[in-house]
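Q: I'm writing up a methods section and want to include an example of the input and output format. Could you take the sequence below and give the corresponding predicted structure tokens, formatted cleanly so I can copy it straight into the document?
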Amino acid sequence: MSAPAQDSLPPEMPERDAEGYLIDPADWSEPIARYLAAEEGIDLGEDHWEALRFMREHWEERQIAADARLVIRRLEARLGPAARRRLFELFPYGYVQQACKIAGMKRPRAWSTG
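A: Here is the clean output for your methods example:
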């Protein structure tokens, strides 16, 4: 994926690992999410933000990334049975590869994608 335009850089990009995941999830902010999404070729819309904000709330409460199934349940409240399909439309290269990265999570080791 290509880097976003220079004017879309957040004020200061936190340290990331070799795959582009934040080293410390506490360094995340919405401008950083927009930058990471742009690197993935994703223009964040309402459904993206609902998933990302839920993931962040879950992390703030538990200090662990939300499993994709939890995000799907959250989206089901508004989207119904289409929530699972919608999550993978929002993040077409996968929940771990894109959603977790954009939400500022560390890269999960071995993890179900939902």
